[in-house]
Each structure stands twice: as structure tokens, then as C-alpha cells.
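C-alpha cells please, single chain.
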Amino acid sequence: MQRKGNSRTKSAWDYALYFLARRSHSEYEIRKKLLAKGFTEEAVTKVLERLKAAGFLDDVRFARNWAAYRMATHPSGSRRLRQELQGRGVSPEMAAAVVADLLPREEELEAARSLAERHRPRRGENREKYARRLARFLWQRGFDFEIVRQVLGERLEGLYIDIDN
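Here you go.
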């Protein structure tokens, strides 16, 4: 006959494996899910240690994979990627290191250019309004001021918008 504590830990283990089988998670996410399910802090800590020892839980691997997937499906700037990783429980230092490694400045600039290319002036929109709209769009996507400024300069160079259209 199993003791209640052991069966509770085993259930937490099974629950954690269920979530990890679906997709990679950070330690913070698994901890949050297990605690929300009603497992004790002690059981959750034991399960997290066991998952890390088995190689099933690695925040660096999670951060790299998640950020790479995010850039492939929904490109954004380094600022936004760092914020989103931190929201998933990755430490600020680890998030900054992963983003710096994954998204060098030139690649970030290329991503901003690509997004700006698809963000064209609207009919009847003057140059200033288009510039504000494009700058806001790039800023909201997480690109820093220098990249937004550079892309705006490139996009607006020689751009003539007929206000009567």
C-alpha cells in the first residue's frame, strides 16, 4: 500500500509529463500549473527536481525553442521577445542572453524591414500619418527606437504620397 505523499508526488509527476508531452514549458509554468492543480509545494519541488535531473525540464532550451518558434511565426523585436520570455518565467538575464544570441542586430533590422514592407500607405493617407502609423506598428512589435528610426528613414526616402488619392 502506497503512502498518500508518494501517490500525490506520482500524480504530480504524471501531470507534469502530460504537459511536457504536449509542448515545452518553463519551470515557472510547470510549477504554476501543478500548484493550481492543488499539489503541495513539497511535491511540486520534488517533481521539478526530478524533471530537471531527467533532462525533461530546461529553461534555457525552452527559451531558445520558444523564441525561435515565435520569430518564425510572428516576427517581433528583441524588446518584445525578452518581455514575453520573462512573462513565461524565464529570468531577465537568461531572456536577454537568449534573445541576443538568437536575434543579432542585423537580423532584427531585417525582420523590421520585412514587416514594414508589408505595411504600406493607405489610400488618402499623407506621409506624416503613414510615418506615425508605421512607427507605432514597429514599436508595438518590440523594435527599439534606433531600428524604428532607421526603417522609417528607409521607407520614407523618396516616398511620394498623393494626398488626393
